Amino acid sequence: MEIALIGNPNTGKTSLFNNLTGSYEYVGNWSGVTVEKKVGVFKNNIGHLIDLPGVYTLNPLSKDEGVVTSFFLNESVDRLLNILDASQLERNLHLTLQLLEFEKPALIGLNMIDVANKRGIHIDASKLSGVLGVPVVPVVARSGKGCDKLVDVIATKSIQPTKKNLVYYGKDVEEAITALIAEIIGKTDHSARFLAIQYFEGNEYVQEYVNSIADSEKLKTISANLEIKLQEIYNSKSLANFIYLKRKEVIESIVADVARKSNSDIPLSEKIDSIVTNRILGMPIFLLLMYFMFMLTFDWLGTPLSDALDALLTGPVTVGFEKVLTAINASEFIHALIINGLVAGVGGVLVFVPQIFILFFFISLLEDSGYMARVALVMDRIMESVGLNGKAFIPMMIGFGCNVPGIMAARTIETSRERLLTILLTPLMSCSARLPVYALFVGAFFAGNKAFVVLSLYVLGIVVALILAKIFSSTILKSETSLFVIELPPYRLPQFQSLWRSTWDKGKGFVRKAGTFIFAGSVFIWLLSYAGPNGLNVDMDHSYLAAIGNAIAPIFAPIGFSTWQASASLITGFLAKEAIISTMNIIYFVPNDASLQGLLADYYTPLAAYSFMVFILLYIPCLATVATIYKETASKKWTAFSMIYAFAIAYVLSLIIYQGGRLFGLV
Amino acid sequence: MIASVLIGAAIFGYAIWHFVKFINKSKKGKCAACELKNSCSSQCGIPPKVK
Amino acid sequence: MFGSLKAGDKGKIIDISHVGHLVQRRLLDLGITEGSEVCVKCVMPFGGPIMIESCGQCVGIRRKEAVQIEVERI
User: Fold this and answer.
1) Which end of chain C is more exposed for a tag (fewer CB within 10 A), N or C?
2) Cβ–Cβ of A390/C57 closer than 8 Å?
3) Average pLDDT along chain A
4) Where in the cell is it found (chain A) (predicted)?
């Protein structure tokens, strides 16, 4: 049995999905967390549950909403599970009425009854069920209350809707519906009435579908005649608006019937909002929060933890491996492979796990609390001036964790031009895999003000993105239309458990990658550094790796790092940015107490180190990001463009920083 | 000596396996990395045309 | 006019038809249309967006679109 989960954005569909399937999918407190279809198996194995992006109506405006409409048209589903936000019943019922017109077995999960009660809204679920003709089960998706009941109802009851044609659209529309049904009846498995109404509403996906099975000219005439008629008789603005108003009438009578309102106190949200979206303090508060996040990650908490982990790995762990290797009498080759290759390469990346988890914790906190949408609001003025809108800031913030989900999050942006622009610029956001490089270099060269230097890099990424947005939007991606309407969800206190889960969910990818790809990469990098044209165990400067690095090293001389070591690590960085750090650990491997940080001072000046960090920040996105850009834009041209412009801008900026810095007498 | 060969073979085998897997996964982008890919029939199949 | 409302003011939407089609659709999705009562929550500086509340939900829209919405103060 296939059950589709559908509802308005930010009504808790994914929370419910996680509860019903026992899986863990990405949840957050803003509209548009889920941008693609996800399938899970019910806990008690009664069927598949399909999580869809949130929509207000089946007539889509943005790409994530299109996912839902094309799902309805192209795939078969046995049951619809409609989630309603009890505190926003009127708005939610618009979608419900459209779903019921689809004439599939349906049931309703009435979510957020706790929030509604707090606002003084009380809804009679059994009455609602009676009016709509489908079962209604009250649930609290966040805590899982009521989910068992929901599963029982799905599994046992026959839930064919008992009422048909809940909304009567008036004589004229109904006549036109009948006429359109006559054209398509028997040619489709979908409800003909549903298709007819959606056609009249101007749903492009449905129009395309219907035109493919019937005479498009005839349909067009029916629709046009109806529109003219309605204009003459009722002075209606448009056909879509007429249908909307008819639905609204029905909804108002339903709500008056089932909901009871009482007085309530001012929600906490409004008090917090008056501070964080304050006209003067909004931006400074955001920057202060970011600064606090970086201090905690790099100074107060993250670095001491990383240092402790580093001491553990280079000390007891290495000694332990050495002992075992000696005991089993391992050959020199194996000894070098494990100590110089694996422990250095994998260990060098694992050391940064504490810092990455702290960063992810903050990103999860932003997502879960409801602050994300406020940031978009606060940022909109700046974004508008560069040809984007505030919503584009959300993918960019997500990009701080990992660019891949960041680019996916751009699906919620309504206009295709702004979406493309956001996809192209999100890779400039410094993802968590780039963080170890900064941590290493600031530790070696800028110990005094670590957090500040790293913050400067993150801000540089944002500033470059904004400048490029301005350039692109006034040259290659010119267009007038821009849309910014954003729903600001109420704040909620994040639960520690869900916060920890989403932190772990994001962070475990980093740990897993260290054990798989970084492990593999370390082996090959080490092998390339161990072998050379003259045989095995050569001096590293005569290894294959040195030969490869030397081949491209001259390109980087003007920007401050012409060593083969730097070039070699940049090449591996294309596969995954963490690989830069494991490559460096292997190349600069020092068996004694001397740390990599100390050794780096021999190869870089502070100025060259900063130039290197800027280059790492901006140069070609990693392989997985490039693949996602290709998937999302479906264009080889734009994918290639995203790689080329990033490399060019990285080179130019590093050049300005390095040569400019030297002019001012910096080293 | 036998231990060395065994360890070496294990490490290189594991490394090659994951290297190939990683490159394949990255090239496919998000879908392959998704844990639900086996039961997911959509394959990110969204019509490109949305205004 | 929306432009004349300050934070804390309440109003009723009379005419929304001058706003761009996409914005109109999105506001309609959120249940904000002619006849809706709205309350201005805050106004961002430098001509930034404004935050309005309607039926217990908050929505951010741009100033330039907001001034095209005709409201009557209540």
Assistant:
1) C
2) no
3) 87
4) Cell membrane
**Cβ contact A519–B18 (<8 Å):** yes
Residues (pLDDT < 50) of chain A are none
Same domain, A546 and A572: yes
Q: Are residues A248 and A308 in the same domain?
A: no
Nearest chain A residue to B9 by CA: give it.
Answer: A334
Q: A195: domain CATH number?
A: 1.10.287.1770
How far is residue A389's CA from residue A387's CA, in Å, rounded to a whole number?
A: 7
Complete domains list, chain C, with CATH: 2-73 (2.30.30.90)
Give the CA distances from residue A65 to residues A37, A57, A68, A71, A196, in Å, rounded to whole numbers and listed in that order.
10, 9, 5, 10, 20
Residue A298 is classified by DSSP as I
Q: Do A463 and A550 reside in the same domain of the chain?
A: yes
Beta-carbon count within 10 A of A156 CB: 9
Residues 6+ apart with CB under 8 A from A208: none
A273 touches chain C (CB under 8 A): yes
Provide the pLDDT for residue C9.
85
The 10 Å CB-count burial string (b at 16+, else e) for A509-540 is bbbebbebbbbbbbbbbbbbbbebeeeeebeb
* Pairwise CA distance, residues C32 & C46, whole Å: 25
Asked if A51 and A34 touch (Cβ cutoff 8 Å), the reply is yes
The range of the structural domain enclosing residue B12 comes to 2-33
* Position A382 in a domain: yes
A514: in domain:
yes
Token readout for A623 is 């392989």
Tokens representing residue A88 in the block: 């926003």
Whether ipTM > 0.85 holds is yes
Task: Return residues 301-320 of A near C (CB < 8 Å).
Answer: none
Which structural domain, as residue segments, surrounds residue A21?
2-156
Domain count, chain B: 1
Check whether residue A288 and residue A240 sit in a common domain: no
pLDDT digits (tens, 9 = 90+) for A120-176: 889 999 999 999 989 999 998 878 888 888 888 888 766 676 667 788 998 999 999
A146: left (phi over 0), alpha (psi -120 to 50) or beta: left
